[in-house]
Amino acid sequence: MDAEKARRALTEERERLREMGSWSREHEPAVAVQQEGALGQHPGDYGSEVEETMEREGLADESDRQVAEIDAALGRIEEGTWGRCRVCGQQIDDERLEARAQADTCREHADR
Fold first, then answer.
1. Could you say which of 6, 27, 52, 102 would form a disulfide bridge with 73 (CB–CB 3.0 to 4.6 Å)?
2. pTM, rounded to two decimals
3. Cα 65–5–87 angle (5° rounding)?
4. pLDDT band at 80 (very low <50, low <70, confident <90, very high)
5. How far lies 87's CA from each of 3, 56, 90, 108, in Å?
6. First and final CA of the chain: distance in angstroms?
7. CA 112, CA 88: separation in Å to the nearest integer?
8. pLDDT at 38 over 80
9. DSSP-assigned letter for residue 28
10. Taking the mean position of all CA atoms in its chain, how far away is CA 14?
């Protein structure tokens, strides 16, 4: 994968993630989750509200984390270091970069 193709793919993915994170924040419940049993609320309903709130917060946080990874990869493209493993300096294989253009390690060092 060449750097320009990666830049386009990363930029598109960045925009998609930012929209998803924005949507999650915009569609948070209008009212904070109330205490269990408040105003005769059924405990199951309370649990559902808590779960939905946590899922939306998690989605927004995960979107932010992925955008940060993409920003770092775009920075590496600008620096000319994109496509090289940050641990060993070897070229990252094209198959890995096609699957995950923001990868900053080769397969051997993927767990670091």
1. 102
2. 0.72
3. 55
4. very high
5. 20, 34, 8, 10
6. 23
7. 11
8. no
9. S
10. 9
